[in-house]
Amino acid sequence: MCGLASETLDFSARNSEARALCWLQLCIRSLMRRITAHWTRLALADAPSARSSHRLSAIEGRGYLFGGEAIARQSIDSTVHCLDTTAGTWTRPAPANGGASAVPQPRIGHAQAALNGKLVVFGGRTGVEMGEAALDDLWQWDPRSALWEPVRPPWPTHSSRPRTTLRP
């Protein structure tokens, strides 16, 4: 007999798929006995303001937060916030050597992904203060230099929709 509810596993089944399923169930049971998970609330200094419609992407063990709104339909700003869970700190990376770069407009509900060690941001919409326009721009941000760079998308541009998903 083979089943998750049973502690008895019988691998004498004639069907190879049934035997494979038994092995899989045994492996899952073994792993579940070893896996424990729990949430830990981090006490973080300099955390960004509470927000929604933002995105957070992981690059090399750090979380990079961009965009969002604190009040409905009012975008916050174009600041990138970096979460270091090991140190328990939030920082706002500044361009190396005081370098300046173009910066994307503040946005709500954009798509964001980590790709090749860079943060990639596409679309979303502006807040009420900027006419709630749909955005179809593509940007990348390099965490090493903390500089933004506009990117010409490899597809025809058109108005994006909020909550678009980017997959690396």
What does this protein structure show overall?
This protein folds into 2 domains: 1-37, no CATH class; 55-151, no CATH class. The longest helix is centred in the first third of the chain and has 19 residues, at 16-34. It is an alpha+beta fold and 168 residues long. A hairpin with a 2-residue loop joins strand 7 and strand 8 (118-122). The two termini are 43 Å apart. Mean pLDDT is 80; it is low at 1-7. The protein has a 4-stranded antiparallel beta sheet, with no helix packed on it. A 4-stranded antiparallel beta sheet has the order 7-8-9-10, with no helix packed on it. The relative contact order is 0.14. It has 1 helix and 10 strands.
Write the layout of secondary structure elements.
Elements: H1 16-34, E1 55-59, E2 62-66, E3 69-71, E4 74-75, E5 81-84, E6 89-91, E7 111-115, E8 118-122, E9 138-142, E10 147-151
Antiparallel strand pairs: 1-2, 2-5, 3-4, 5-6, 7-8, 8-9, 9-10
Structural class: alpha+beta
The coarse overall form would be extended
Strand content bin? 25-35%
Spatial arrangement of strands, main beta sheet: 1-2-5-6
Number of helices: 1
Q: In terms of per-residue confidence, which ranges show pLDDT below 50 for 5 or more consecutive residues?
A: 1-7
Question: What pattern of helices and strands is seen along the backbone?
Answer: HEEEEEEEEEE
Radius of gyration: 23 Å
Report the helical percentage.
10-25%
| Record field, number of beta strands | 10
* Main sheet specs: 4 strands, antiparallel
Count of all domains = 2
Average pLDDT taken over every residue: 80
First-to-last CA distance: 43 Å
